[in-house]
Design goal:
The protein is of the alpha+beta class. The chain is built from four helices and eleven strands, in the order H-E-H-E-E-E-H-E-E-E-E-E-E-E-H. The strands form two sheets. Strands 1, 2, 3, 4, 5, 6, 7 and 8 form an eight-stranded mixed β-sheet that branches. Strands 9-10-11 form a three-stranded antiparallel β-sheet, with helices on one face. Strand 6 and strand 7 form a beta hairpin.
């Protein structure tokens, strides 16, 4: 599949997905980006090895959620649409400026324990060259092929909640919700076309603050 075919496949799967929003005026609005970039695998590439997404590790100097794995994103400014928030945050964190025409669709909203409703915005980056992350926000930037997240997550129980905690295995580590939940749904919807829900999945206690 070439880049045009990969983009069309992602758009089709998102169009077929009946996303769920969350109406919680008591929570702050925020966006994260699932930014799809090509891997250079060639015309014979499948969706799994032809596309990757951008994943960061948050800087150690940040006040909240430092050193955690994260999708680029942040809190919505007053008057912004959620897709404007997503594109602004991507530009601020990674220096990647994408227009509104890069928006492919949205995944389900996810309410966090720290007081936010996160809307995952799927963006088309395509053939992206070298990026220069903002060191004040990002300590590491990775391009993760979808083939690498095509693994089954772990679900564990904790005494603080009746809901299962999701853990997504990635490079000999575990990525937790909310990032892990969004990655898992992106894999299910974009790679397999399955309308798997994740808004009920719990975060580990260390991410509640």
């Amino acid at each position: 599949m070439g880049p045009d075919e990969l983009r069309a496949a992602a758009e089709k799967r998102l169009a077929d997905f009946d996303r769920r929003g969350i109406d919680r005026p008591d929570l702050k609005r925020s966006a994260v980006t699932v930014t799809l970039v090509t891997t250079g695998a060639g015309e014979s590439a499948t969706f799994a090895d032809g596309l990757a997404f951008l994943l960061t590790r948050r800087a150690a100097t940040l006040r909240r959620h430092k050193k955690q794995w994260a999708l680029p994103g942040g809190r919505a400014d007053s008057g912004e649409t959620i897709t404007e928030t997503a594109r602004r945050e991507l530009a601020e964190e990674l220096g990647l400026h994408l227009g509104e025409d890069a928006v492919l669709g949205l995944l389900d909203d996810y309410a966090t324990r720290s007081g936010y409703v996160i809307t995952p915005v799927v963006l088309w980056g395509g053939e992206v060259g070298e990026l220069t992350p903002n060191p004040d926000e990002v300590s590491l930037l990775l391009r993760i092929p979808f083939a690498q997240i095509d693994v089954e997550p772990r679900f564990i129980t904790i005494p603080e909640s009746d809901s299962p905690v999701i853990q997504v295995p990635l490079f000999d580590r575990l990525v937790h919700a909310p990032t892990g939940a969004v990655i898992y749904q992106a894999r299910e919807v974009l790679l397999h076309g399955r309308p798997t829900r994740v808004d009920h999945l719990e975060q580990p206690v260390f991410a509640w603050r």
